[in-house]
Write a structure and sequence with these properties.
The protein is mainly α and about 140 residues long. It is built from four helices and no strands. The radius of gyration is 28 Å and the shape is rod-shaped.
Length: about 140
Amino acid sequence: MELDIEWYKIIIESVILSIIIFGAVFLEIWLYRKSEKIKETNTRKRMSDLIRTDLRRKIRFINDSSEYKDYKPFFTDVWDAVVLSGKQTLFPFETIENLQHCYSWMKYYNTEIQQKHQIDNEKTLKEILDEVKKSIEHSLEILKE
């Protein structure tokens, strides 16, 4: 009978030990996921601030270009850096799609600027700048959400 009691104690101790180990692993995984989520949230916020600041600068650039009729190309280095770092995946798909559309308008404008030397068409550039500005304003509205 004493032998049966020993097995009973071993089984109870093993179950308690496995519960402790499982709980420790579960807690470690939970804390890791929580810290990763906090990192992603902070990174998303910083990226959003960076893109918003860049888009606001682009609007000032457009206003200056229109006012002084000095059409220069956009620098899309901020969006390129976001894409190259792979951080665009932190945003919802609709936001990524909208920002890509916005920066595509800028690149299209840059292409037209390069062709301006061949064909001097200020009206076309102004129309494209207006479209770029609308696209930027729409992107800024989406980023505020």
